[in-house]
Design a protein that fits this description.
Blueprint: E1 6-11, H1 15-25, E2 31-37, H2 40-44, H3 47-50, E3 54-58, H4 66-73, E4 81-86, H5 91-98, E5 102-105, H6 115-131, H7 141-146, E6 169-174, H8 178-186, E7 196-200, H9 206-217, E8 221-224, E9 230-231, E10 235-238, E11 244-251, E12 254-261, H10 272-283, E13 287-291, H11 300-308, E14 312-316, H12 326-332, E15 338-340, H13 342-350
Helix pairs in contact: 4-5, 8-13, 10-11, 11-12
């Protein structure tokens, strides 16, 4: 039986990097290079003929930047998914907003670099993108609010969180599609929200840029976590990307985060499972756990443990997910107590602290 291959279009102005990607990805039996272009304007002319499933797009190109290219093409071709490959730049988050599914940090292409590690990452994200729901196909935020089936007015501006205590805590995990989902959730949290800790699968350094970006639109104080940071009201800590696992610890003053080197868990470092597992032990019934869009199963077992320890657990529903992987597994094993559209996640969490 013939293998269905994912057709890839590479849009990258560097000849060296186009050839590098083509050479690596052509060795994967499930991937096929449909074409490659140095110029996004030229690439647009060939989309109907080449019919790619996934585009790999550079951010900085002559004539048209990657963000502009995505905003032009994706609404017209909702069946095409996109991932971006970029050097360290905030532009990747603009690309997510434009409809890209995920991004990859440009590799070190000097002699001796582990090409196989980069290949595995790109191939994994291409497969996730191919399976993703397009932005156009996901319910509009207004429509999602209507189907949330949650009584009462929005609580996004609630000032009186009388049910919250110094032991209250919110933990969030996400992967593919998670950057935009996290923005949607956190921007609705009031300034007095209990401390929030987040693991979003993301390369090193980008997590700091992401935290700074979220901080600009949030009523809370958002920053990349450092070892020993306190989790207090009005504070959001985002786990740094790289090789450190983040755990929440408890002491007489409340909660703090501990960062330590360690192996990947559930395929990731930092891992959502590691975060949720530690929150279950540290906070128990005082915590709220939220699992958002993402490929794979990271966080599912940890969320189940949180629920078993008495925490309230919330999962993003299938219709609003970019990839209904992590929330689906968590739901299927009994880890999700309440499943809601993305637009209703914030209110679902806030309601736990309103009396």
């Amino acid at each position: 039986m013939p293998v269905h291959k994912i057709r890839i279009l590479i849009v990258e102005d560097s000849l060296f990097f186009r050839e590098f990607l083509t050479r690596l990805l052509s060795n994967d039996p499930y991937l096929e290079i449909a074409g490659s272009f140095s110029d996004p304007v030229e690439a647009q002319k060939h989309l109907d003929r080449l019919k790619p499933d996934v585009m790999i797009v550079d951010m900085e190109m002559p004539r048209m930047r990657g963000n502009e290219f995505l905003r032009t093409v994706l609404p017209r071709y909702p069946q095409i998914k996109a991932i971006v490959v970029s050097a360290l730049s905030n532009n990747v988050f603009d690309a997510m907003q434009a409809g890209a599914v995920d991004f990859v940090s440009k590799p070190n292409t000097r002699p001796g670099y582990d090409n196989n590690m980069f290949l595995r990452e790109v191939a994994q994200k291409v497969r996730a993108a191919a399976a993703a729901t397009s932005k156009a196909a996901r319910p509009h935020m207004g429509a999602m609010s209507q189907i949330a089936s949650m009584p009462g007015p929005s609580l996004s501006n609630a000032a009186n969180l009388s049910g919250a205590t110094s032991r209250s805590l919110v933990a969030i995990g996400a992967s593919t599609g998670g950057t935009e989902a996290i923005v949607e959730v956190v921007k609705k949290f009031p300034a007095g929200m209990p401390g929030v800790v987040i693991v979003q699968h993301m390369p090193p350094v980008f997590t700091k840029m992401f935290a700074e970006r979220v901080d600009k639109i949030s009523k809370m104080n958002v920053r990349e976590a450092a070892n020993g940071d306190r989790l207090e009201r009005g504070v959001v800590l985002i786990a740094p990307g790289g090789d450190l696992q983040l755990r929440v610890r408890s002491d007489t003053r409340g909660y703090y985060v501990a960062l330590s080197a360690g192996p990947k868990v559930s395929g990731h470092c930092p891992s959502v499972d590691v975060l949720f597992d530690s929150v279950a032990d540290a906070a128990g019934r005082d915590a709220v756990g939220i699992i958002l869009t993402g490929m794979g199963a990271d966080g599912a077992k940890g969320l189940l443990k949180m629920r078993q320890k008495g925490a309230h657990t919330i999962g993003q529903d299938q219709a609003s997910c970019v990839v209904y992987g992590m929330p689906m597994v968590a739901y299927n094993i009994g880890g999700v107590a309440q499943q809601v559209p993305l637009s209703a996640v914030s209110d679902a969490a806030i309601r736990r602290f309103v009396r």
